[in-house]
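JOB MANIFEST
job_type = single_chain_structure
chain_count = 1
residues = 203
[input]
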Amino acid sequence: MPHSKNIDWTAVRARLAELESSREAQGDLTPEEEAALLDERARALGRPLTPDLAPDTLREVVSFRASGQTYALESRFVLEVVRSAEVIPLPGAPPALRGLTLLHGEVLPVVELAPLFGRAPSNAAGPLLVVGTHRAELGVRTEEVREVTQVSSLDLLPTPEGLVDTAGSLVFAADRDGTLLLEGDSLLSDSRLVFDLSDEGVV
């Protein structure tokens, strides 16, 4: 990872271990409490059934706000919404990397989108949007996660010209309200959001 020489990995590992122990201590749920928790998560990511439509006619997206900008990401890339998560900052890390958190016993990088668009990162702390394909790959820091909606390709506008140089392929369109539609595959493969933590013994 860039700038890892400034990170106190011993302190990070100790804090992660402490967080893991704390969550394990809080994890002794009764069957009723566990069922309620699963129901709550299901409602958070509840997706309405949609008719069988021609490709590219509609896209089901999760809209969210981060650093004053509204984004939308296809729901197939959204694995979970974590309403409250402790993020351990990493001094000296790249601006887009807010820190690390634990998700179901696994270390997850938490990222900020603003630096990818040439803006300063925000200090706002809100829900984490856990994104990935077959597994959790990133936690995206948001101010709020709004809703699951459908957008029609007929209502979309081209990527704003001012974002082409900074955002590259991250944005494939915008809507008439200024929401930026993110390309999930590009987000997950962007070199600025690929962090190799294994060399430092964290994962």
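[summary]
The first strand starts at residue 58 and ends at 66.
Helices lie at 9-25, 31-44, 161-167, 184-189.
exit_status = 0
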